[in-house]
Amino acid sequence: MKYRIIIVILVCILLSAFHMATEQLFVAPENWPETTYDFSKNPLTLQKVELGRKLFYDPILSKNNSISCASCHSQYSAFTHVDHDLSHGIEDRIGTRNSPTLMNLAWHKSFMWDGAINHLDVQALGPISHPDEMGEKIENVVLKLQQSKKYPALFYKAFKDSLITGEHLLKSISQFMLTLVCSNTKYDSVMRKQTQFTTQERNGYMLFQKNCGSCHTEPLFTNLEFENNGLAVDPTLNDSGRMKVTGNKKDSLKFKVPTLRNIEFSYPYMHDGRFKRLSDVLKHYTSSVLQSPTLSAHLQTPVVLSSNEKVDLTAFLLTLSDKSFLFNPKYSFSK
Amino acid sequence: MKFFSLLFFIIGIQFASMAQTPESPAIVFGPVFGDSKLQELTYYKINDIDSVQFTALKFYISGVELIHQYKTVWKEANSYHLVDAFQEQSLSLPLNVPTKLKYDRIKFNIGIDSTTSVSGAMGGDLDPTKGMYWAWQSGYINFKVEGKSNLCKTRNTEFQYHLGGYRFPYNNLQSIFMDMPASQLHVVLDLKKLITEMPLTQKHHIMSPGNEAMLMMERVINCLSIKK
After folding, report:
1. What's residue B195's pLDDT?
2. E strand or H helix at B108, and its extent?
3. In chain B, which among 158-177 make CB contacts under 8 A with chain A?
4. Of A73, A251, A317, B124, whose Cβ has the fewest other Cβ atoms within 10 Å?
């Protein structure tokens, strides 16, 4: 009998230890929607997350070993490419789209501006094999990793198998990206009733809910849908967005609604990086939304904002910055 | 000692029974070009002037089921196989069927189902390093054939057909039903038929899901037959 009690206690301690370990790797904030990513198929472990982090920062993933994921997704800009409207790849080739921020990806249903990627695990295949980005084949990446000094041991530690596979490579990169949770903005603190908005921010919040919240939906600040927000087509790129994937005319010029978390730091803005400042973005919504057959229902009535209201709205947008995310040592390059 | 002789006896019986059942149930694919077995980098004559050679022929077989009198009596577990025409051992898919199971038909799919296509990175034959996963628009390539022909006015006279798609209305998974013998089912895939039906002169590349991929897949299905 005594033994039984001891065993039960031991099991409880063990379970709670496991629980603690996973809890630290990924915490879904309270009152947020359910995550989309199926963690049961790729349970996070410290070793796998760390391996993924190494890979994310390692140019070994590119053809001439010059570009890593972080080259286009740098932490200090919420994992986008600052100062570049279209992202730069190997041999200075220029892509056709602006790199998006990487935050709260566990909630996303599809990836890329047009949703061409259907699962986070297979996301990395895109940039690795794109001739203008990393220009490498996944088969070769696996070979290079297998022949390297350090990676077989790291894969062994993570997967109990030193034979490196595409599956394990991709799943570990996913694990790292899943840990990139942004939930400590001033906005979040206000929602948790730990602090309060200034009058200006509160006013901006109301304007936001009225004009922007239908697409940039709280708490993720995206509804994760594809919408046409009335941007004029750039004739040099002719990007039809979601229609490229579905072949359906109704999806023409629709792009995945980006989050506005850390928007202060993730300029330039939009899928082609056409706007450098938030004031340009607001000007777009108030004065240059283009009518077209696929313009979102949420923008059919024009957005009207006085210049004071624009200031207030901007003040609110700045409450979406999360310094604890941008400078989290767990997300940065590891030696 | 007794133990060992018993062991040998059992092993002996095993071997004997293996030898007795002539062939355990399997699907065996036989890619051919007309009357010839298909070989890599070999030129085949289409007619007196034109010829063709193949550099790759790979496809997925999934969802294998055995049927007895219109009812499914057996489903293969984890049923995903990558068949590569130029890798002999991949051409034969042994079916681990319980002995004495009765069946008369077989069902299998060419390609990968939509659920698996949206489930992220997989291992084994489904590993993205197998060259059968699209990088820029997620999804498996169900059927891939590549080669060269003087009929193709392209760089290096190449053609490439990557047939896939899991999303409505371009879901390109094809289910095939065939009569199943007790032992091995020999399925012939005749590329001569495919080449003569497909407009090599006009269409050299299919690299994404859509109508063209659907049409081409139908042609592929028409090239399958049971070896008598």
Report:
1. 87
2. strand B105-110
3. 167, 170
4. B124
Count interface pairs A-B at CB distance under 8 A: 69
Asked if residue A218 is part of any domain, the answer here is yes
Q: Region A33-56: what's the mean pLDDT?
A: 97
Residue pLDDT, tens place only, B133-150? 998 889 999 999 999 999
**Which structural domain range is residue A95 located in?**
29-182+326-331
Instruction: Report the C-alpha gap between B195 and A100 in whole angstroms.
Output: 44
What is the least distance, in Å, from the CA of A41 to any CA of chain B? 9
**Predicted local confidence at residue B17, as pLDDT:** 47
Q: For chain A, how many structural domains are there in total? A: 2
Closest CA to A182 of A100, A265, A105, A82: A105
CB contact under 8 A, B129 and A165: yes
Confidence grade of residue A82 (pLDDT, cut at 50, 70, 90): confident
Is A130's Cβ below 8 Å from some Cβ in B? Answer: yes
Does any domain span residue A92?
Answer: yes
C-alpha to C-alpha distance for A330 and A332, rounded to whole angstroms: 6
Residues A175 and A194 in one domain: no
Q: Does A126 touch chain B (CB under 8 A)?
A: yes
The pTM is what?
A: 0.87
Q: Extract the tokens encoding A163.
A: 């034979």
